[in-house]
């Protein structure tokens, strides 16, 4: 007994003309999308086995769409039957492609799947069944009541062993490929590959189950047009599935080719849609009105339509670029803000805190650990380590793998040969996901560890791309910080050396200054012990001892004053009272009648400084001024001490108060000006050489500066103090 089963493939036939009809538009759009997707995948890496087979797999669905187009637009029965035969064979060959893809995608875990014998074995069964079933292939033409001159094609199969064999092989291949993909998930090491595989196998199972469901529903659909629309929607969903799969999970990385290819695919589909809904109606009207050949008119209108759509190409390309790199575009502002923040210098701990905060806030990482390289122990130590986080040895396999990869790596993507090591257990316990090496000029400076995301989310490819960009820029910023730190260390070392040298020079100068009075005292004392000296000589020697002892005391007092200078207390200063006191002190120094005056040319109520330190500085300048006048009296016969003059003046500018001490003494020689503030430098016989050093240090403590101008008969020292408020 022979049973007939109808296996329906949608197709509509118009008796008049061979013009394309509206019913073929969805199939044309699906064909455009599938063909473009297959071409993009293939051209990304034509030599890769996975790319070739995946492109062939998608192209088989494009052939499916092409067969539908051929049936829907055939003017004769023969072309329609050819389209149905093509579709019939694609249906039973597609599961074979699925089996091969299941072994290669997303990563081939074996070697036999790449051998030609495997491909031949997989395709041999469906090809054999198709060859044997060819004579039994039949086609029927059924007229539709709803639309005259449109027919629905039915493919009729006999339930013979060959057809049952094909059906069994197809179902077995679907189960075979799905099981391989599901079993492969647990062997894949990265979250990205696992997510890709889950999505792909779920989509393919949906496609096969959906196709079977549509075939089974055909028996309950009374209107053939309902079956047509259902199957058409299904083929369009299949085309979108492959497109979404590549875009969402970045199964391949075609970059600009993907956005450009999809741009022209969408534009082509839009052109076809406008053609069917607008151009054909317009051409029919114009053809009947002006009698122009329809083919020429259609061609002209299509060309005009293409030129009208071209301006949208750039906008659509930018749209696809934003869709493909959505996360990158969303984070662009935050990344630029981070780079601007890292341009300045930050202490190492603060630098790492900025990176951690950015990753937690923007990538939603549950935790971030940064292992900083410590050359003194040859280990990468966590930046906030308190002894509980194990370090990563420089000689570990993890470090070797990161140096080899030179880029962002997933934790489970790295080959670990030291799984028993403490650091490996720690990274597993905190659910490490990504490792970002901060490498500059081949030197691994730090390792950034990102743990799993919050809220059960997973990282995507765009976020991995963000990490790659951050890795290189952060590494450059970290190296810049290191260079600044190295320069500061060298500056501190140089300062210490200079400080020690200054202390040594100061000690040598102090010893030299003390030695001279001590020699005088020692010589005088030894002479006094002699009995054969006159009373006058004895008194002179005793006077020498007293004078040199006084000189020693002044040297020590000045030296202690230089050492005791500390931070001053800022209070408002009464300059009139200070100048009165200064004039009195200077007049009582000796018997010389040298006039001392002062002048206040500005309101000094805003002068805030340390009164004791400022008075000491002015007193030292006044003492030096009297000494300069005394020296001029000795060297200039036309100048007497009563001709001398010391004037103190307070003035101000926009930012400073200026306190100056002016004298008309002998002046400062050009040779002495460079050494003026050096400790123990003096040109006077009884000077200690510490007076101006003390003044210079006091002015520095008061956050001011000191200037001088000198010529024979005129010297002015000016202390510039900033305008401040009292503490």
Structure notes:
This protein is of the alpha+beta class. The chain has helices at 25-44, 49-72, 77-104, 116-133, 161-185, 191-217, 224-249, 256-290, 294-309, 312-324, 326-342, 348-362, 397-405, 422-429, 461-528, 535-564, 575-587, 611-635, 670-673, 691-701, and strands at 4-14, 138-143, 150-158, 368-374, 379-382, 392-393, 409-410, 432-440, 443-451, 571-572, 596-600, 608-609, 646-652, 656-663, 705-711, 714-722. The longest helix is centred in the last third of the chain and has 68 residues, at 461-528. The chain is elongated.
Number of strands: 16
Q: Sheet bearing the most strands, described?
A: 6 strands, antiparallel
CATH class of the largest domain: Mainly Alpha
Tell me the number of helical segments per DSSP (H or I, 4 or more residues long): 20
Unreliable stretches covering 5 or more consecutive residues: 1-18, 143-152, 254-261
Look at the structure and name the CATH superfamily of the largest domain.
Answer: Rhodopsin 7-helix transmembrane proteins
- Name the beta content range: 5-15%
Distance between the termini: 114 Å
Q: For the CA atoms, what is the radius of gyration?
A: 48 Å
The fold-level CATH name of the largest domain is Rhopdopsin 7-helix transmembrane proteins
Q: How do the strands of the widest beta sheet line up side by side?
A: 6-5-4-9-8-7
Q: Which second-level CATH architecture of the largest domain applies?
A: Up-down Bundle
Characterize the overall form: elongated
Percent of residues in helices: 55-70%
Number of domains: 4
Mean pLDDT: 77
Class of secondary structure makeup: alpha+beta
């Amino acid at each position: 007994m022979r049973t007939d089963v109808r296996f329906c493939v949608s197709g509509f036939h118009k008796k008049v003309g061979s013009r394309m009809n509206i019913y073929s538009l969805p199939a044309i759009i699906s064909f455009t999308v599938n063909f473009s997707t297959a071409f993009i995948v293939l051209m990304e890496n034509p030599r890769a086995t996975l790319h070739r087979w995946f492109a062939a797999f998608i192209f088989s669905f494009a052939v499916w769409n092409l067969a539908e187009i051929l049936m829907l637009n055939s003017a004769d029965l023969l072309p329609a039957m050819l389209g149905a035969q093509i579709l019939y064979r694609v249906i039973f060959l597609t599961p074979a492609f699925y089996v091969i893809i299941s072994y290669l995608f997303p990563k081939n875990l074996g070697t036999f799947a790449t051998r030609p014998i495997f491909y031949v074995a997989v395709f041999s069964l469906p090809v054999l069944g198709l060859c044997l079933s060819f004579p039994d292939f039949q086609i029927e033409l059924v007229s539709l009541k709803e639309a005259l001159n449109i027919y629905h094609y039915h493919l009729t199969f006999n339930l013979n062993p060959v057809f049952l064999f094909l059906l069994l092989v197809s179902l077995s291949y679907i189960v075979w490929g799905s099981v391989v993909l599901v079993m492969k998930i647990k062997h894949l090491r990265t979250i990205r590959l696992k997510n890709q595989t889950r999505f792909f196998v779920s989509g393919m199972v949906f496609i096969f189950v959906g196709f079977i469901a549509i075939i089974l529903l055909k028996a309950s659909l009374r209107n053939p047009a309902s079956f047509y629309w259902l199957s058409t929607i299904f083929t369009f969903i299949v085309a979108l599935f492959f497109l979404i799969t590549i875009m969402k999970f970045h199964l391949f990385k075609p970059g600009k080719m993907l956005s450009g290819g999809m741009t022209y695919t969408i534009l082509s589909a839009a052109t076809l849609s406008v053609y069917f809904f607008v151009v054909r109606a317009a051409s029919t009207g114009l053809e009947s009105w002006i009698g122009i050949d329809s083919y020429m008119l259609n061609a002209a209108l299509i060309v005009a339509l293409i030129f009208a759509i071209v301006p949208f190409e750039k906008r659509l390309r930018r749209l696809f670029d934003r869709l493909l790199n959505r996360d990158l575009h969303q984070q662009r502002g935050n990344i630029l803000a981070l780079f601007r923040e890292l341009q300045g210098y930050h202490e190492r701990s603060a630098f790492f805190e900025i990176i951690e905060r950015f990753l937690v806030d923007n990538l939603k990482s549950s935790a971030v650990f940064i292992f900083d390289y410590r050359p003194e122990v040859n280990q990468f130590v966590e930046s906030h380590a308190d002894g509980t986080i194990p370090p990563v040895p420089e000689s570990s396999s993890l470090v070797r793998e990161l140096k080899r990869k030179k880029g962002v790596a997933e934790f489970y993507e790295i080959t670990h040969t030291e799984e028993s090591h403490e650091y490996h257990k720690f990274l597993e316990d905190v659910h490490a996901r990504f490792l970002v090496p901060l490498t500059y000029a081949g030197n691994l400076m730090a390792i950034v560890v990102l743990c799993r995301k919050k809220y059960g989310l997973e990282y995507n490819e765009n976020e991995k791309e963000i990490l790659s960009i951050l890795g290189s820029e952060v590494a450059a910023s970290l190296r810049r910080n290191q260079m600044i730190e190295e320069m500061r260390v060298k500056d501190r070392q140089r300062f210490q050396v200079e400080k020690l040298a200054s202390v040594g020079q100061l000690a040598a100068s102090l010893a030299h200054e003390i030695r001279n009075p001590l020699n005088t005292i020692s010589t005088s004392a030894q002479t006094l012990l002699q009995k054969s000296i006159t009373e006058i000589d004895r008194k002179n020697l005793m006077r020498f001892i007293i004078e040199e002892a006084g000189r020693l005391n002044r040297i020590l007092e000045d030296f202690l004053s230089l050492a005791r200078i500390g931070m001053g207390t800022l209070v408002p200063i009464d300059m009139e009272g200070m100048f009165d006191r200064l004039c009195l002190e200077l007049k009582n120094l000796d018997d010389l009648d040298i006039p001392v005056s002062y002048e206040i040319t500005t309101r000094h109520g805003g002068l805030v400084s340390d009164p004791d330190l400022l008075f000491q500085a002015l007193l030292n300048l006044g003492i030096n001024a009297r000494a300069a006048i005394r020296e001029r009296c000795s060297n200039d016969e036309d100048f007497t001490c009563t001709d001398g003059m010391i004037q103190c003046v307070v003035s101000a500018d926009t930012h400073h108060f200026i306190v100056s001490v002016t004298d008309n003494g002998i002046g400062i020689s050009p040779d002495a000006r460079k050494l003026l503030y050096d400790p123990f430098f003096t040109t006077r016989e009884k000077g200690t050489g510490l007076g101006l050093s003390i003044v210079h240090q006091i002015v520095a403590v008061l956050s001011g500066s000191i200037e001088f101008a000198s010529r024979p008969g005129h010297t002015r020292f000016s202390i510039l103090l900033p305008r401040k408020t009292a503490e």
